[in-house]
Amino acid sequence: MSTADGTVLGNAQIFGGAPRNRAFNVVMLADGFTAAQQNDFNNACAAFVTAFTATPPFDELKPAINVFRVNVTSTDSGADDPTSTGGTGATPRTYFDSTFGSNGIRRLLTCNNTTALQTAAAQIPEFTVAIVVVNSTVYGGSGGSVGTYSLAGGATEIAIHEMGHTAFHLADEYPYYAGGAETGHDHHPAGEPAEPNVTTNTNRATLKWGWAVAATTAVPTMSNPACGTVDSRPSPVPTGTVGLFEGAHYYHCGAFRPEYDCKMRNLGVPFCRVCRQVIWNRIGPLATLQARARTPINVVARFPEHMDVFAVGADGRTMSNWWDVASGWAGWFHVSGGIASPGGAGSPVTAVARYAGHLDLFTVGTDNRVYSCWWDRASGWAGWFALPGIVCRPGSTVNVVSRYSDHLDLFTTASDGKIMSTWWDARTGWGSWFQISGGVAAAGSTVTAIARYPFHLDVFAVGTDNRVYSCWWDERSGWSSWFTVGNQSCRPDSTVTVVARFPDQLDLFTTAGNGSIMSTWWNARSGWGTWFPVSGGVASAGSPVTAIARYSNHLDLFTIGTDNRIYSTWWHDTTGWAGWFNVSGGVGKPGGQVAAISRVTEHIDLYTVGSDGLVYSTWWDGSGGWAGWFALGVT
Amino acid sequence: MPTNSGMELPTQKAVRLIFEYDGDTVRLVSQQDVEMAVTGFDMAGVDHPGYYVDTRDAAGATLARVAAHGAFAGSAEVFPEKPGDPITRVEIAAPKGAFTVVVPVTAAASHVAVTRVAPGAAGQAPRDASARGVSDAVTTDIATFPLTAPTQPASSGGTP
A21 and A130: one domain? Predict the structure, then answer.
């Protein structure tokens, strides 16, 4: 019974169309199917695909999933079934040498894992998981590095549960080792399990799935009053509630699972919210991101060789991808389960790095409240938490400025248009939201802010009369009144973009009522200039102008034009404004935004949502000029 | 998005390794160059107890670490035939089997090591500690194997 007992016929892709090198590739191998029985194997694979791709969250991740079957003939049909474990005594000659009765238990169906892995690698080198389908109606299966299951009813559930271990590193959530009557499993040993779906930690603030636990859910949610036995009481909370349920990881007490039930606890039930998220963040990054059409993208360079990009998916998920010079792009992942508010362009995720090992994120949630979360190099991602005291306009932007590393200033618009701010300071925590000097913004206008000095803020917005307004805050004098910047009339939903090439200079950009791209400036010595059109450029309705200053005497501008192409121009003090040009043939979404960052002076990275709804990037380098656009995914 | 020079992100160079084990005896069965994206590095945690495969340079410095999930399993799951009956586990007297990992490789990678990370003398993280970073863990090499050429990256690795 070995590879001499059969032949590998070849493989066929039976599901998916993702590029193999950027996909979750499932390989199904036949064992105990004779040449005449290959169609039975094909049917079993088709049934698995139906069950697998209907199981959340795999149903949402189909664009990144491929399933292949590898047809292998065996000399005989079936699998070994020793009489010592109640079997028939059959000893068929099969390619992968599958056998029931492993370890003295008939239902424990195993195969030659080495042969299975070698065959899978030879047929589909990029495979993620290998599953052996055994031609027997006797119930059985097993997990580990190769999943094995038979044709008995319900055995596909074994394959999906085992995939949870093999591909997603999920722990078993059942609270017993041998069904509950065992000894030595009353209390989980000290120490935090590595797996993402079990914990010994009862601290809500540091709970690894804290992002999924509602503030109103008790923690622990269910405690076992008698650790000598398994807690078999019904759930005290509705199905789907995420909290801390005692009894997990083979122990009656001391270890907790996220929900009352989960496929990692019982076959035949859905994966819990936390396991779904883990699976999503393992497969999702393999795909490109279908984004909200006009979502503003945010990019932060915590240091020059690293970028963190934030966008909102078409389904509202708060998404991120990161690039590091050493490892390339990590792929899109869902940040702490967040969903951003729709409305207008949709609330973006804004981010700031107060220092290289830390990120603070902000967005407006679907309840139009302001939410924040953070990432820290030492502790990873925290959950989203609400900043109380404000209800925003749907789709509002929360802009953030860090004047120094222990301080944040936030700006947004309330549901009645009031221009609002709050702050966080490491010494005092979060302040209360307050209206800035009685200001009210036009519908759709965002509030922008800049800190030219650590003790000074300049704030800009389009007012209800569609004029550009500004005010400032200074540590010595507090908030000023709002004043109009010239007499420029804007589109009501315009953004006023501001850049400080040096501390005593501001350059402003916005769009006039007819879409013309307008600019003015302020200088500490000469005061405000007059508004002027920038090289005749006209922006797509709703598109903001993005500006960066690579040098104190140089500006680069980006926007989406009325033909939806992505345009750029630049200003240099010795040559003035250049004409607008299309960046690498790129086409964006009407009203979309172009995000830009200069990590080093002779380099620009751009991000936008392309005409097909995917997030794209390109770059300019002083030595090589503009590169082509590429869909952002995983390297 | 129409472009004037449509580009594909380059895929990181990687090697698939298949190991066979019988107790603590490990054999490298095959190594195969493969171009595929590997996600989820941020989920593995750092130095949690378990088995890992490290890629190392000639001086022994670790370049990358990938968890070897399911390797050296000392127990097996037994699934119930009747829905609602408990899944159980049984001890395996003599762990024996195979596992595979895909490890990213760079030009500096010279060999791989199968390692065991065990809790350190000070024990594991306290009950309310973060899930990440058991800092006093002890790493032991079970076996090392040379990487065979070619493993040169095809490109500089996605630098925009």
Answer: yes
